[in-house]
Amino acid sequence: FHYLHYNEEQLCDLTEYNGYHRTYVDNEGFLWIKNQFKLKLYDIHKESFVTNTDSILKTLGIHRPLKNFFMDTDCNYWFQTTDDQLIYRNCKYGESRLILTEISGLGGKEDMLYDLAVIEKHVFLFYRSGATACYEIENANELYRENPFGQQEKNYINTLQVVPYMQYLYQLRNGDNGGIMHSFNTKSRKWNKIIETDISLNTLTVDKEGNCWISAQNGFWFIDKFQTEKRHTTQLQLVDGRVFESVIYTQYNDKEGGFWIGTSNRGLLYYHPERFKFRNFGRTLFKQNNGSELMVYSFCKDESQMLVGTQQGLFRYTITEGNMPVSIPLS
After folding, report:
1. Nearest partner of 136 among 146, 119, 126, 122, judged by Cα
2. What is the CA radius of gyration of the chain?
């Protein structure tokens, strides 16, 4: 692993994003990284961090400071500015336009925009309170609002992650006393509570088969695409027979069917469903100073490299035929 250094001059403020590592990869070869009120931009082709993020934002039509930044599954940008506008950048046509104003004033009440997702020309805005608002992208008409919690006390207001898959929107929320996962069917407009736990749920991903994977403070959850099988795994068996236990911060499902896991102080794990066991890439491969903690928070993969986000910065793992995990017998 090679460490990729960045400094404070390369960071752009996000005044309302208080979460941890969230990464997006666009179609222009850039990796956008949000973390604790900051946004940084990494040029994958040049293998370096961008030093003029503000200048790049201006070329995209953004001339005001940002509250938050999002990217949808079509790699279009969504910017929430400090004057509470939501600006949409269609990257295919290179056009930016104002979609909504005063987006924190949902229904006349102050509410913080936590995440958004796009399905079939509709944008869904997800708020701290649990409220979800659906708008048409073309004309910004509001179609409806939903809330899985109804009038109940809002206990899950600390963090939120939304993942769209087909007609479903999966949301993962955390509060002071645990986490909860819902699915929302955009066709029937019905919510379904999938799991509710007394521990924090860290990251949600959906694999190419439609199965959900959730990292947690004590292992991870697997939920099949029909939402009937729910399996919680706290002990992972490695290829050498050892049992592995760790806080799992994040996971990544690659296009080859592999499953990467980021842990606390134990490096990376790689799993392929045809081989049934995990292979560990230990913390020594990261060449950190003795005694320093290693917390893996995010992944990004292209054809030749895996980028791994940690609390100390970004690491690059160059993938070749000789070191591809899938080529190593795991059983």
Report:
1. 122
2. 20
Closest residue by Cα to residue 8 from 64, 49, 60, 69: 49
> Which residue, 63, 18, 58, 64, is CA-closest to 39?
18
∠ CA 117-122-127, nearest 5°, is 45
Q: How far apart are CA 10 and CA 230, in angstroms?
A: 42
The pLDDT tens digits for 215-247 are 888 888 999 999 999 999 887 777 677 777 777
Comparison of pLDDT for 269 and 99, the residue scoring more = 99
pLDDT of residue 272: 65
Task: Round to whole Å and give the CA distance between 308 and 220.
Answer: 19
- Residue 254 in contact with residue 272, Cβ under 8 Å? no
pTM greater than the 0.85 cutoff: no
| pLDDT of 1 strictly over 50 | no
286 φ, ψ to 5°?
-85, -5
Q: Compute the distance between CA of residue 172 and CA of residue 161 in angstroms, rounded to an integer.
A: 5
Looking at per-residue confidence, does 304 or 245 come out higher? 245
Q: Which residue from 209, 134, 221 is spatially nearest to 178, judged by alpha carbons?
A: 221
Asked whether the predicted pLDDT for residue 9 surpasses 50, the reply is yes
Q: Copy the structure tokens of residue 62.
A: 């953004």
* Contacts (Cβ under 8 Å, ≥6 apart) of 13: 37, 38, 39, 65, 66
**What whole-number distance in Å separates Cα of residue 194 and Cα of residue 17?**
26
Amino acid identity for residue 118 in this structure: V
